Amino acid sequence: MTEREKADIAALRGEGLGYKAIAKQLGLSVNSVKSHCARHPAEKMATAAGGTVCRICGKPVTQTKGKRVKLYCSDACRMKWWNTHTDQVKRKAYYTFICPQCGRQFEGYGNAHRKYCSRQCAADAHRKGGARNGC
Known about the structure:
Blueprint: H1 3-14, H2 19-26, H3 30-39, H4 41-49, H5 75-84, E1 94-98, E2 105-109, H6 119-126
Helix pairs in contact: 1-4, 2-3
């Protein structure tokens, strides 16, 4: 394999092409492309991450070796994406409860051990004789 073909493989991997597409474009066998990428994982990671930038602000994202690939530069950007793309987020942790203070049925997200529907009901329940008229 020539140096030019190696550079072309790295560039095409950086663009996100798969082994078959690269092999077809360069006239190489699929196994040659696969084995080159397997022998040069640092090159593959550098081109695959290819100067990864944050989906929200466009700042460069620093990757940690041995960890999952980061898509955002900070938690603030990650949460901003989460909150602006609620239709794409697969939220599975919804739970239905009945508030022991007011008797109202409510739905909560993320905490399966939640008790009260609001802070006011929790405060009323913890006060002696603190019953509240409705929630």
